[in-house]
Amino acid sequence: MPVQYSGIIDEHQSVRSGLGVFDISHMGQFFAEGPGALAWLNDLLANNAARLAVGECQYTFLLNDAGGVIDDLIVYRIGEERYLLVVNAAKVDEDFAWMQSHLPAGVTFQNRSADFAGMAVQGPRSAQLFDTFFQGKYSRPARNEILSPTIDGETYYVARTGYTGEDGFEVFCPVDRAVKAWNDILRKGAEFGIKPCGLGARDTLRLEMCYPLNGSDLSPETTPIEAGLSIFVDLQKPRFIGRDALLRQKQEGVKRRLVPFKMTDASPPPRSHYAVFKGDQRIAETTSGTLSPTLKIGIGMAYIPTEFARINEQIDIEIRGKRFPAVIEKKPLHRAGTAGA
User: Following CA atoms 257, 269, 337, 5 in sequence, which dihedral angle do they give, to the nearest 10 degrees?
Assistant: First the structure.
């Protein structure tokens, strides 16, 4: 995925107000199948895959023994005993090795990342494009549902998921169909003003929604509870890797929390690894930062000590050797569907 096509702000605004498409072929696709697949996944993943009906999906985590995040991913139940897992590009090899090292008998587990391409169609007009694209042959899946249509004899996976906060679909197709699928989406989306979008807009869109980025906001040294994502962790399950550590953390309380902030005045855009101050005390460093095209001011996230991690708390961000005022905000920083309102 390039950083930009027509420009980060132009692409960002296209997704917020109309329609954009991202090439997400770098994402990884694993398939797990067999009578023991569900039990195995539930022993590895923090969320509860047993809650999934066929055709549903959920956001979840692959954790280490200390409860740290190896990866955040989406698991889709695509059959009675068959699951698709979409993982982050930089974590494909590590995730597969970790999961395979815990693989029991009775489960077939495959890394088919090289066999699939992916496209994310995002924006308030995405449902219209879906209807146009399939011409009524398929009903739109609901949010967090997945279809497996057959197109020209090949199985595609179309999920109503995304990383922008807007309505949208993520489409995974055989890799030899990638160019055709991309061009078909752009051609049929032309009447809705679709634009190809790059990595820059993907980052500004997800940051406005306070969606974490693995490797920046999530890491093996941070837990879902510290990141404010405990809703995607089921501590009622009797076991999963990292459960004991998270249970202790939940009971004892966390010492830091991942919170969003917004600059209060004009400033250079914040980036990751910038120092965060409370008064004269350096208390943290930023994990992500950017200039918000919607809010037209700098925004970011940081793990702040719990005593300061309060909404409306005043902090300072050191940018290029100078401190600029910021305030801790409530998630999300932007509410999807309100662009241009």
Answer: -130
Pairwise CA distance, residues 290 & 268, whole Å: 9
Region label for 165, one of left (φ > 0), alpha (ψ between -120 and 50) or beta (otherwise): left
**108 three-class SS:** strand
Q: For residue 203, which of 274, 146, 261, 272 has the smallest C-alpha distance?
A: 272
Assess contact for 275 and 282: CB atoms under 8 A.
Answer: yes
CB atoms within 10 A of CB 262: 16
Q: pLDDT higher for 337 or 84?
A: 84
Residue 242 is classified by DSSP as T
Half-sphere exposure of 323 (CA within 13 A, CB side): 13
Using one digit for the tens of pLDDT, what is the confidence trace for 21-71?
999 999 999 999 999 999 999 999 999 999 999 999 999 999 999 999 999
pLDDT of amino acid 340: 36
Q: Where are the alpha helices (DSSP H) in 216-338?
A: 243-252
pTM of the model: 0.95
Q: How far is CA 16 from CA 186, 241, 261, in A?
A: 17, 38, 21
- Give the model's pLDDT for residue 337: 63
Order of strands, edge to edge, in the sheet holding 146-147?
146-147, 157-159, 168-174, 116-122, 20-23, 195-197
Determine the 3-state secondary structure of 20 from DSSP: strand
Q: What is the DSSP letter of 177?
A: G
pLDDT for 132 beyond 80? yes
Q: For residues 300 and 287, what is the distance between their CA atoms, to the nearest angstrom? A: 7
- Cα separation, 302 vs 259, whole angstroms: 6
SS3 state of residue 43: helix
Q: Are 31 and 182 spatial neighbours (Cβ–Cβ below 8 Å)?
A: no
Alpha helices in 78-119 (DSSP H): 92-100
